[in-house]
Amino acid sequence: MQEMTGRSGAVLRVDLQAVQNNYRLLSQKLGKAQCGAAVKADAYGLGAIPVSGALYAAGCRYFFVAHLEEAISLRPHLPSDARLIVMHGSPVGYEAEFLEHGCMPVLNSLAQVAAWRALAKQQQRALPAIVQFDTGMARMGLSAQDVDVWRNDAAFLEGIQVEYLMSHLVSAEDASNPVNAAQLARFSGLRSLLPQAKASLANSSGVFLGAAYHFDLARPGAALYGVAPVAGQANPMQAVAHLQGRIIQVREIPPDTGVGYGSTWRSRDSAKIATVAVGYADGWMRSLSNRGVAHIAGQEVAMVGNVSMDTITLDVTAIADSELQEGALVDLLSASHTVDQVAARAGTIGYEILTSLGHRYQRVYR
Ligand SMILES: *Cc1c(COP(=O)(O)O)cnc(C)c1O
């Protein structure tokens, strides 16, 4: 791919070296525990194939996706010793596809356990899986009642080779939240069901909660992609996504002129407005209307008016015309204007900013 083309409205640079550096930092923090990677949702919008390749090269061997379909499309791009784990487990009737494609399910319910057991019986061999407990999220995994069924059934896991017991933290980014310790205690207690099995609890933020949360395998996603793992603390991760939008028009407007749909912003004095070819269809959320900012030659400019489907409008009155040529690029995401900052302005979290990144960008992988 060419380094730069005027055909698209924006250039998204994905710094794979930063992903690798982030992986190494998390691995270091984990000490003896393994560091896997959540690459679901196309590696949080950044491109599961190139990102997973970079992670594999950095030593990662456990790749977590949500859906079977994601695993199947990623499988041919990873070496055979990479484990691909489907966190939603198998949809009913699709169990055999896991074997066909070399993927491992997370078993989240009695029905999923039973179906995997039945497949093992039919195959006459032990089949690997991860078993998830719900320790406080009420979302997925075996509930307390399910665990009782397990306790009363000696053949519960017949034919299932449990590689890991797993659970997921509710509020790991908030180290002071007592729910962390409560979940840790619950999870540690449940491990007595299968004491020889390895365990996995920590997401990105969980890695920063200390060694007690590390167990044998962590499953970070967001931190690999530059999102701050600990609320209210300096972000130790490197920025991965760098987004630049293209100026397609600049105009001078007189005082009291409405800008954009609904004229939600009006100029007080005469002003200079730059239209940039990135809109809500590109993940530049409408909630950034009259709240977002961009940077031109290091100078912050305000997003004014509503975000349109294909464009945003910036108040560039203070910017020299030499920086505002048609086709010039303005910074929307950078090391100094991070996904977390954009998320705060948009009223969401960095995760949603990344996973919303558009498919019309020219993508450049470094
Ligand atoms: C998404 C997800 C992760 C990764 O979480 P991050 O907060 O992005 O590190 C880990 N485990 C489960 C079960 C998940 O759904």
Name the descriptors.
about 375 residues; alpha/beta; TIM Barrel; Lyase, Ornithine Decarboxylase, Chain A, domain 1; 7-stranded parallel β-sheet; 11 helices; about 25% helix
Description:
With 366 residues, the protein is an alpha/beta fold. The protein has 2 domains: 31-225, Alanine racemase (TIM Barrel), CATH 3.20.20; 241-365, Lyase, Ornithine Decarboxylase, Chain A, domain 1 (Beta Barrel), CATH 2.40.37.10. Helix content is 26%, strand content 23%. It has 11 helices and 19 strands. The strands form 4 sheets. Strands 1, 11, 14, 15, 16, 17, 18 and 19 form an 8-stranded mixed β-sheet that branches. Strands 3-4-5-6-7-8-9 form a 7-stranded parallel β-sheet. Helix 1 crosses helix 3 (48-57). The protein is elongated and about 80 Å long. The N and C termini lie close together (12 Å). The mean pLDDT is 97. It binds pyridoxal-5'-phosphate. Pyridoxal-5'-phosphate binds at residues 38, 40, 87, 168, 203-204, 219-223.
As a percent range, the share of strand residues is 15-25%
Question: Quick one: biggest sheet?
Answer: 8 strands, mixed
- What structural class results from the helix and strand content? alpha/beta
What is the CATH superfamily label of the largest domain? Alanine racemase
Beta strand count = 19
Kindly report how far apart the N and C termini lie: 12 Å
Oligomerization? single chain
Text of the CATH class of the largest domain: Alpha Beta
Overall shape: elongated
Unreliable residue stretches: none
Approximate helicity band: 25-40%
CATH architecture descriptor of the largest domain: Alpha-Beta Barrel
SSE ordering? EHEEHHEHEHEHEHEHEHEEEEEEEEEHHE
Rg computed from alpha carbons, rounded to a whole number of angstroms: 24 Å
**Count of alpha/pi helices:** 11
